Amino acid sequence: MGSYHAQEGDCLAQPGLEYVVYLRFGGSFRLNTSQSTSPLNGRWYNPRTGEWSEPFDVTPARAASFSCPDDKDWALHLKVKQSTKRQ
Predict the structure, then answer these.
(1) Could you tell me if 42 and 33 are in contact, meaning their C-beta atoms sit under 8 angstroms apart?
(2) pTM (2 decimals)?
């Protein structure tokens, strides 16, 4: 597991599988998700209300761009999509 800390926020990751980003003051950022070989599910978490956004698809990229819903603190959770194939 890797982690990154900056004045504006923090990131914890199990590269290629799962990422959690916390931003203290909203804003935009880029995240390298290229180690993932499968699409990711993304959801924003509002720590002020305890509510999650609707899930959205994220295509792995060297510089995937994200923008917080507003200028307050937010967390972003990305996780590899679970396969729905039955064998």
Answers:
(1) no
(2) 0.86
Burial of 79 (0-12, 13-18, 19+ CB in 10 A): middle
In the predicted model, what is the mean pLDDT of residues 67-85?
A: 90
- How far, in whole angstroms, is CA 20 from its chain's centroid? 5
The total number of structural domains that make up the chain: 1
Query: Does residue 16 fall inside a structural domain?
Result: yes
Q: What is the phi-psi region of residue 48: left when phi exceeds 0, alpha when psi lies from -120 to 50, beta otherwise?
A: alpha
**Residue 33 contacts residue 19 (beta carbons within 8 Å):** yes
* Tokens 């994220």 belong to residue: 58
- Is 46 in contact with 23 (CB distance < 8 Å)? no
pLDDT tens per residue across span 53-64? 999 999 999 999
